[in-house]
Amino acid sequence: GQSLEQPSEVTAVEGAIVQINCTYQTSGFYGLSWYQQHDGGAPTFLSYNALDGLEETGRFSSFLSRSDSYGYLLLQELQMKDSASYFCAVKEDSNYQLIWGAGTKLIIKP
Amino acid sequence: DSGVTQTPKHLITATGQRVTLRCSPRSGDLSVYWYQQSLDQGLQFLIQYYNGEERAKGNILERFSAQQFPDLHSELNLSSLELGDSALYFCASAPGTGSYEQYFGPGTRLTVT
After folding, report:
1. A72 CB neighbour count, 10 Å cutoff
2. Which of A63, A84, A92, A95 is least surrounded, with the fewest CB atoms within 10 Å of its CB?
3. Is residue A72 within 8 Å of residue A64, measured between CB atoms?
4. Which residues of A14-28 are buried (b: 16+ CB within 10 A; e: fewer)?
């Protein structure tokens, strides 16, 4: 079957670095996306990895290891506004919808 | 602002009733996805339309149906509503059929009493 696993909650301190992991088990794999959702808001796209390695976009980076069926989202210099839920999602096939993880709630303490 | 619009923003209705949620995708996007998100839960994929045709089906109940019109807007119909249908309903749009980047609307919050 298809499954994506993420921690349900992660707590970190403002200014620190936090890593949100995602492991997946899907019948096919094209790439891994990350989305951010603030409470009461809509999900917004953060990043996409199709190849192994690290993709950096400002304070956020995303990593993929296809051989380990594993990826992570790295957030640096945490700010209070980064408090949100983060979802990983697998693009399983060229023409299919994304398969979504259950989301990780990131709590940031001052 | 993603460019995706959803109406209404809030909807309160009674059990057993039927409602219609509307979504207009971003200009140029042919795919529309519908998702359900219950309180503090993840996104449950319901259904996808691409250029007027049903493309993929997820965990959509038989009481729910959707369609995409020639102008590419989409409607999600929920009938025989139950208390457990209370949730945020999002639509998202994308240019192609299997886009990894989807643009989400602000959502419709449905409360069934």
Report:
1. 21
2. A95
3. no
4. eeeebebebbbebee
- Reduced to 3 states (helix: H, G, I; strand: E, B; else coil), residue A51 is coil
Amino acid symbol at A26: T
B28-71 residue pLDDT tens: 999 999 999 998 778 899 999 999 999 989 889 999 999 999 99
Q: List, run by run, the mean pLDDT of 10-residue segments along chain A (110 residues).
A: 90 97 92 95 95 94 96 97 96 77 95
pLDDT of residue B85: 96
Only one residue has tokens 């990593």, namely A63
Q: In this complex, do B104 and A43 lie within 8 Å of one another by their Cβ atoms?
A: yes
DSSP A101: P
Which of B43, B98, B104 minimises the CB distance to A94? B98
A87/B103 touch (CB, cutoff 8 Å), yes or no: no
What DSSP letter does each residue of chain B carry, written as one string? Answer: --S-EEE-SEEEE-TT--EEEEEEPPTT--EEEEEEE-TT--PEEEEEEETTEEEEE-S--TTEEEEE-TTS-EEEEE-S--GGG-EEEEEEEESSSS-S--EE---EEEEE-
